[in-house]
């Protein structure tokens, strides 16, 4: 990743539906350079799924919660597989420290969240859960400051 890649990423962040030509115009790079670098970024997994842009509330899931979970370590793989089958589980992180997993879930309402948390607790190998309901988001998911730093433009 270099400053040219970061310029392309910033232009994509500003206009995710931009064409290669529009990105070339915006960045001052040639169309071929933008196309080659975009392809490289995609193949390296730098560009993530469009799903991250969809608001779960628009799908009928306005509640967001994080479930801190302690598990039996030797059962991590089957627990992860079971969590992958729960539609309301948005993301799962393995943690180091006093808890083993951070499970990001969405729910329709409090009763739905209670059901989801119970279904997670019912998974074989899950020992304990603590649910934290998100009351407000103060900083949206963002990478623009990091991209600006790579470009050498800390003011953006």
Automatic annotation (TrEMBL):
InterPro entries: AsnC-type_HTH_dom (IPR000485), Dimeric_a/b-barrel (IPR011008), Tscrpt_reg_AsnC-like (IPR019888), Tscrpt_reg_AsnC/Lrp_C (IPR019887), WH-like_DNA-bd_sf (IPR036388), WH_DNA-bd_sf (IPR036390). Residues 1-62 form the HTH asnC-type domain. It comes from the Bacteria. Keywords: DNA-binding, Transcription, Transcription regulation. PANTHER family: LEUCINE-RESPONSIVE REGULATORY PROTEIN (PTHR30154), TRANSCRIPTIONAL REGULATOR AZLB (PTHR30154:SF34). This is Lrp/AsnC family transcriptional regulator. It comes from Mycolicibacterium pallens. The lineage of its organism: Bacteria, Bacillati, Actinomycetota, Actinomycetes, Mycobacteriales.
């Amino acid at each position: 990743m270099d400053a040219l890649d970061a310029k392309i990423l910033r232009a994509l962040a500003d206009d995710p539906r931009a064409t290669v030509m529009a990105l070339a115009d915006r960045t001052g790079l040639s169309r071929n350079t933008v196309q080659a670098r975009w392809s490289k970024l995609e193949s390296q997994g730098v560009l993530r799924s469009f799903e991250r842009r969809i608001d779960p509330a628009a799908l009928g899931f306005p509640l967001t919660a994080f479930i801190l979970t302690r598990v039996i370590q030797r059962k991590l793989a089957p627990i992860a597989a079971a969590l992958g089958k729960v539609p309301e589980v948005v993301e799962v992180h393995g943690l180091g420290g006093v808890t083993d997993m951070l499970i990001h879930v969405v729910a329709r309402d409090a009763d739905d969240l209670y059901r989801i948390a119970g279904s997670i607790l019912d998974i074989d190998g899950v020992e304990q859960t603590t649910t934290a309901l998100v009351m407000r988001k103060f900083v949206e998911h963002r990478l623009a400051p990091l991209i600006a730093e790579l470009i050498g433009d800390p003011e953006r």
